[in-house]
Design goal:
The chain has 242 residues and is an alpha+beta fold. The chain has four helices and 13 strands. It starts with a helix and ends with a strand.
Length: 242
């Protein structure tokens, strides 16, 4: 067997396992969030507005919130986990434990994690100080919950029932619609900000366009990398990188 072929095969196999190791938690997380999203579709859409995968920025840090439900009964903030094995933890522990036979792994207490999400929402909705927030942590049936908490920690099949137990009318329809609009606007603005940051990271502020004075930025074209004016398409100036 050709030694070079064997080395390439081994390197490819190693790269494959690294990719699996990196992406497996993300895939499992997505599966858990997807299951929760399907369960939440059973809620009455006239009473509950479900927002999935919302990212908010607060004071320089970002919060990735799995599910937000804005309802006439308050705002539900849901953190989804798709771990298997026994899950052990208390309300105020810094870390919880995932136990599978003799294997034990610590992970950040999802209740504390969700408190950070609620803090970000409260900051965004600071003009609605009277709004009630409900934190819910939900796990798929892959887990066996051995937790003792005041906060609701439930399986996904109990999620809708848990939400419906909070039935005290608290927010009128107009306020509910305002809150939904604010969250969606913040989500859109955050996406646009990310795009702007990605664009600015490619800019070379030491190079100016001789036509309009704008910054030149790296672009990848048919014939390789070149500099183009940031004000494109109003300005079409380009120059080779080398």
């Amino acid at each position: 067997m050709d030694h070079s072929f064997l080395i390439i095969s081994l390197l490819s196999l190693a790269a494959f396992f690294l990719l699996i190791k990196y992406y497996t938690p993300k895939i499992k997380g997505y599966i858990g969030e997807n299951k929760a999203s399907k369960a939440l579709k059973r809620l009455n859409s006239e009473k509950y507005t479900v927002l999935n995968n919302i990212e908010l920025s607060t004071k320089g840090s970002s919060s990735q919130i799995d599910h937000i439900i804005v309802s006439n009964y308050g705002i539900f903030v849901i953190e989804t986990k798709n771990y298997k094995g026994w899950i052990l933890g208390y309300e105020k522990d810094k870390s919880w434990v995932q136990a599978i036979y003799k294997y034990r792994r610590k992970f950040y207490n999802p209740i504390l994690q969700n408190q950070g999400h609620i803090y970000a929402l409260k900051h965004l909705l600071k003009n609605y100080k009277y709004v009630r927030y409900y934190s819910i942590i939900t796990f798929t049936k892959r887990a066996t919950l051995k937790t003792k908490t005041y906060t609701d920690v439930v399986y996904i099949n109990k999620l809708v029932k848990t939400i419906k137990q909070y039935d005290s009318y608290h927010i009128n329809e107009q306020t509910k619609n305002e809150i939904v609009a604010i969250i969606l606007t913040a989500k859109t603005n955050n996406r646009n900000k990310d795009k702007t940051l990605r664009v600015n990271s490619n800019m070379n502020k030491n190079l100016s366009c001789p036509n309009c004075g704008g910054n030149l930025m790296e672009r990848n074209g048919k014939y390789g990398i070149f500099f183009g004016c940031h004000n494109f398409p109003r300005c079409t100036y380009t120059r080779n990188k080398n």
